[in-house]
Model the fold of this input.
Amino acid sequence: MEKTREKVLMLAVAVSGLMGAISLTASERAGASAVSGNVQVQTEILGSIAMQITSPNDTDATCPADGTSCAAIIMDPHTYSSSYSDVTVTTNSSAGYGLTVQAANPNLVNIADNSNIIPAGVIEERNGTPYGDQNAWSYKTDGTIVTGWTAMRTTAQTIKSINEATLNGDTTRVTYGVSTGTNPTGAYRTTLTYTATMFDDEHGSADLVETQYMQGFSCGSIEQGETVTLVDRRDGQSYAVSRLADGLCWMSEDLKLGGDADIQITPTYSDVSSTFTLKAEDTSEWCTTNSADCINQSLMRKTGGTGTNYAPTYLYNWYAATAGGGTYSTTSGMVESSICPKGWKPPHGGTGIGSFASITATYNTVAALTVQPLPGFNFTGFRTGATVNFPTSGGYYWSRTAVDAANANYLVFHSNVVNPQNTAQKYYGFALRCVSTL
Done:
């Protein structure tokens, strides 16, 4: 009988080097153990990240008395602060390890009033210096995977992958940046989980899927008909992206940028040349006429429901979809800015590559357009006021092409009708898809 040799592997993780406005405390989770053969081991480090914003005359805001590590700082509105954690992993596996991070809540939540948040977002930099004029917090590392400011998310995001033993310990510095625009003072917190996964000789690092971002993605890296998952650096949302019959890569899911707080999108990771503020979800009103005052509200609103090929969708008026570039006075032509990620744009309303017409020439029925995962269009419904119309039987998507001062082109499909060049008033609330060139 052949003798089997058992291979015992070791993995140890430590977090240290904490400083500044945000503190992280961590300890190894019980249950980490040695492994035999090709089984992978995971060790999780749990930490509570907390910060306190105070103003010079605010004496009541205090850090929580629940054992959470929390550093109080004077941080007026329109300021920026940062801190870091050093995460050290030691393993004797020659195949190395992978390290991920995720948050229980991507936002920093006010401990005393959970309706107040500092949303996960991208810290804007001007001339290489973080700019403290927005409500956002981000993280980045000194590694090669997450090099720029990135929004935290609730699913695991790979921040390090090493293909060798690290007997002396391998350290990754994770920097947290916080920018305050108009946030109320007080203590804010979320919980982070770092997971170190030890590779084995058979599987190696290929078993750890590295995060791919929408910003910087090359459509030429995938084949026609192939679908990949990409992450938007701005808010950590992930999207299925497919290379369709026109040769371009299209989002196979509706854009989900927005939420309970205003979002400032900047040229760093967005399809804009200057900062644009996407207003928070509005629960009380929606534009019901075309006017300069109305369209400048840049409203968006989420909607939900059930139905075949239906998904909860964010609906934007045209001004919001084009990041302020498509104003009420824009009378014709394609608008260059949008709330799409950098390197992506809404389809245009004409014909040819990059238009809705270019894909509906192939996917020319409602059934074909709504096939999952590609092209994966949904029954979105549309909003003209307090009501979402046809939420489970019609799909409505903005293009970036104006028809006249009051109207823009859009894609519509319902029943047995597919029209890639329909026209609607700019205050309507439609969904948005983004397309990448090669």
Q: What stands out?
A: Residues 11-207 form a domain with the Immunoglobulin-like fold (CATH 2.60.40). The radius of gyration is 24 Å. The chain has a mean pLDDT of 76. The first strand starts at residue 11 and ends at 20.
